[in-house]
Amino acid sequence: MSYMKKVITSTMLGNGLEWYDYALYGTFSALISQQFFPKGNDVAALIATFGIFAAGFLMRPLGAMFFGVIGDKFGRKNALALSILLMAFPTACIGLLPTYQAIGIWAPILLTLIRLIQGFAVGGEFGGSIVYLVEHASPKNKNFIGSLSMLSMLIGLLSGAIVAAALARFMPIEDFESYGWRIPFILGFFIGMTGLYIRTKLHESPAFLEQQENHTISDTPLKDALQHNYKEIVLGVGIYLAVTIPFYIQTVLMPSFMEKFLNFSKADSFLLFTISLITMMIVVPISAKLCDKKNRETVLIVVLLAYFSFAIPYIYLLDYKTFSFALISQITFSSILGFYIAPIPTLVVELFPTRTRYTGMSLACNLAAAIFGGTTPILLTKMMSATESHLPIAFYIMFAAIVSFVCIANVKARQKRALLHLV
Hints:
By secondary structure, the protein is an all-alpha fold. It has a single domain, classed as MFS general substrate transporter like domains (Growth Hormone, Chain: A, Up-down Bundle), CATH 1.20.1250. It has 20 helices and no strands.
């Protein structure tokens, strides 16, 4: 295996583990709500389950700061090795956690604690792995290499969903609901250990090594990022909004939404979820390669206009409650989402100087995820229950598109000013 392939494999395994776990949590959210909460009110239990999902995101900015300091001061490789280790153990712990019937209130408390530890680790893993990937890329393929972090998310989600579906299909339902659902979480530990092993064989990123040679490494990367790059962090959060809100709608909320609100069968909702992921997996490399050849920001502005225009039809098609209309809705929206998320990792990385890049990138994407992404399922579930309408989903997508549009336009304006300054 070539060195670049090792870099790609190790970062994709780390990212993939995170989203493998989230796929399991999203796919099993209805089952988890029955296992770790008292019986009686299924909607309240589901909302509480999404609430624990959101709680993990509150730790992501703290993880971003902690691992950002390690990554910018002591090296990307060290931070990424520690983060994948901290993700692997809690993932296995979910599979070993006793139910509410066994230990009572301690079940949701321990589940919350596990999600908090996972969120802390993910705060260093996601942004850092993107930085590490992009810093190994050449100018000709930087958007494509950066997009592999997004592709690994989708592979992780699909892997988790397929493993879950296979167990549900081939195990007796009683066995699956009592212990079978735990097996994929325990398997995640071994995925993490494989990624850790590969990471121990890697070198530091070229950009960080250059900083070392020039003696320009920051002693206080968090302070420097907040003091000198706060505008870039805010801009990164805004750009990332049209990633995190639609992504969590499509991959966490939608499977349960189809089952609970639209009365789709488990089989149909899973099939649509799988088709959605495969669609994005096909579109992401196409979009990334296009952005390596054309003006990336112009491509993104067109995609954001498509987001805004399709948000309401996306919901109206689902409200027909037929598989064919739902299929059209999912494929179209997933294509738009795939086109947007592909070049975003590289774009946000390039906002920051090398000396604060790990910290700045991690803070930007994790603040967006903590404030907007992780809260999306519980917020929209409550809004739909309160309004008895599914349109809150569409309005939230439109809000994300508007904010990201303004931020991408700002990036274009910055590039134009920089070009005029060079002239």
